[in-house]
Amino acid sequence: MVRRSPHRQETSREFRMQTSTIAVVNATGRQAASLCRVANAVGRNVRAHVQSKDSLVGKELEGLPHVDLLEGSLDDKALVADLFRGAQWAFVNTVPWGDEIATGRALADAARKAGVKHYVYSSMPDHSVHQKEWPSLPHWAVKFTVENYVRQLGLPATFVYTGIYNNNFTSLPYPLFCMELQKDGSFQWKAPFHPDLPLPWLDAEHDVGPAVLQIFKDGPRKWGGHRIALAYEILTPRQACAAFSRGVGRPVEYVQGPIDIKVSIPAGYREQLAGIETLFGKYQAPYFGPDLTAPDEALQLWEGYRGLEEYAREPFVVEEKLNGQTWMS
Predict the structure, then answer these.
(1) Cβ(98)–Cβ(107) under 8 Å?
(2) Alpha carbons 199 and 296: distance in angstroms, whole number
(3) 3-class SS of residue 190
């Protein structure tokens, strides 16, 4: 069943017809929500798919004047056709709900049928194609498979490869990016990355939207068929902890070690974490593979990025409070 949010009356039909419509998939995710907010702020029409409007982000997006929500499952062919109908641009970030490859292919087919002029897909590398001893990360390899299908279709497309989200850090006991509060008030980040391995960082909520909107404005003549490493800082784990320490005003220590799993995790994620330990801990593979580097192209798209230090100083503290943490009191 498709349910739409009502348009705001103050937005004129004439204005909406004069601006390009962006179709957005999984709009409550950090990447897609960032694009919805930025596009709305500059008066672009957004037709955004959400699984449910009941989340905090879903309710926020429903209140934006240039955003029209379509609620339902991506298995609904009528919803998908409606999502892309008349849209000039599309931003798609598939997620591991059900068969991600089948969903990714079906979305690309529908966008091609609808005549979408520029399709931006959030992809990731399959490291196993570069060196046989490097494992495929299951949550990334499916995206790479979908990317190759999009290329085969001949869609005018661009592929963004996102760095590690600044927003992954939390003092809650989630695996891989737990910034664990110590008894002395300091923090410790334990992860399998080599302490001196350069890693790409991205504030997804702050910076994906402006960058993707610029890709659309530049068009497929500039970015068609191109992979873009969307990351604005290259920091080793030691450097990341130093930046985080400056932000929170407390010591932050990095410890290389195996990933601790202290909470229930989604099916399939354990295999993803095991692959990360091998790929980046044992082999110290480049995060995006050997052929893609950051941040030069990302900076061509958007220079006003929010770095890890600024994130730690401001949004991290707010998110921690919302998660019920009291260490900052």
Answers:
(1) no
(2) 15
(3) strand
